[in-house]
UniProtKB/TrEMBL annotation:
Residues 91-102 have a biased composition (Pro residues). Residues 90-120 are annotated as: Disordered. The keyword Signal applies. Keywords: Signal. Residues 109-119 have a biased composition (Low complexity). This is DUF481 domain-containing protein. Pfam families: DUF481 (PF04338). Residues 1-28 form the signal peptide.
Length: 366
């Protein structure tokens, strides 16, 4: 017998031996007992053995309790039937489909797979979470805007007919701090036109940060930045940065008198003609808020910047206002304002002085 029952995998050992030897087909049957050959394409069989091995081929016959198994047309095995777990007979595997032609590839596309319910639910959850985050961000931004905003101011003049004049003045002031530390940011500007001629186009962003040198001290340290655009002065940009010391003569919610002084650096960019100017300066600023009557207040912000390299170059900026209360809660106010800008060395073709008077409605939050 070619396969012994005590071997762990007799068919596998026998198959390896036949492949190594390369001899004739192993068979215990007589030469004349070979059955007629089967159609090689009629079926494909899979043999499962008790030890877990699997063989693919075709069964030829059963003689003396052994299955004659054809692995290839030139390789056969004799397998005891007690080693066999089951035999499955199936159809031959279909030939692979021919590759598509270039025309088919360009004209035929695979149908889109329908979106599953789980995918749709995931997309819906994603958008819900995204909108929740957006709503949270918007609410937080609005709360921060409310807590930082000190006042909103808008004013203007609009005339039509024989005289056509439009003037818009807007300012938003942000302020936040503690009883000792103050952070201020002012954003605003003016835009005006008269008889189709530009009369005002000025915008600015100013910031200031104060903190005392020690607890309960009136002496302060400050850092400030001033940024401006003014088309009427042919000024594309003016930026000043300064840091130094100061003193708080009064520092109350409705009464404030603060002086600041320190070195500064200013850059100016003009057009028509193009001109750039960088100067080290001295920086001096006076901030005033003062009640005049029970329903009237005065405010002033005055700044002077003489150049350290050219004593003939001096810049002055002044913003003055009178405020009248319009309600009992001191929220709505009417403001009469005057702005004055002076540049001793303006761009060629420009005058050194600018005056702007405004009437504005102001809402004060704190």
């Amino acid at each position: 017998m070619l396969c012994r029952a005590h071997l762990p995998s007799p068919c596998l050992l026998l198959g390896v031996w036949m492949l190594l030897v390369g001899g004739p087909t192993v068979s215990a049957a007589e030469p004349n007992s070979e059955p007629a050959p089967l159609d090689r394409l009629s079926s494909v069989e899979r043999l499962y053995l008790e030890n877990g091995d699997q063989l693919t081929g075709r069964s030829r016959s059963v003689d003396d309790g052994r299955l004659r198994w054809e692995l290839t047309p030139e390789r056969e095995l004799l397998i005891p039937v007690e080693w066999i777990a089951r035999l499955e007979i199936g159809s031959p595997p279909p030939p692979p489909p021919p590759p598509p032609s270039p025309l088919e590839e360009s004209t035929v596309s695979a149908p889109a797979a329908p979106e599953s319910t789980e995918a749709a639910a995931d997309d819906e959850s994603f958008f819900i979470a995204w909108f929740d985050r957006l709503e949270t961000w918007a609410a937080g931004t609005w709360n921060s805007f409310q807590s930082l905003t000190r006042r909103l101011q808008i004013g203007g003049q609009f005339l039509d007919g024989n005289t056509q004049t439009d003037l818009l003045d807007v300012i938003t002031e942000f302020e936040k701090g503690t009883p000792t530390h103050v952070r201020q940011v002012d954003v605003g500007g003016q835009w005006g036109r008269s008889n189709n001629r530009q009369t005002a186009n000025r915008w600015f962003v100013n910031s200031n940060f104060d903190w005392p040198v020690s607890e309960d001290s009136s002496w302060i340290v400050f850092v400030t930045s001033k940024n401006e655009y003014n088309a009427m002065q042919n000024l594309d940009y003016r930026g000043t940065i300064s840091s130094g010391g100061g003193y708080r003569f009064f520092f109350e919610p409705k009464k404030r008198l603060i002086a600041r002084f320190g070195p500064a650096f200013t850059v100016e960019v003009f057009h028509d003609p193009a001109q750039d100017r960088l100067t080290p300066d001295l920086f001096g600023e006076l901030e005033v808020r003062w009640p005049l009557r029970p329903r009237m207040q005065f405010e002033e912000r005055f700044r002077i910047q003489p150049s350290l390299l050219d004593f003939e170059l001096v810049r002055i900026f002044s913003t003055t206002g009178l405020l009248w209360d319009l309600d009992e809660k001191d929220r709505w106010k009417l403001r009469l304002g005057l702005q004055y800008n002076y540049n001793s060395q303006p761009n060629p073709g420009r005058v050194p002085n600018d005056y702007i008077s405004t009437i504005s409605l102001m809402y004060l939050r704190k």
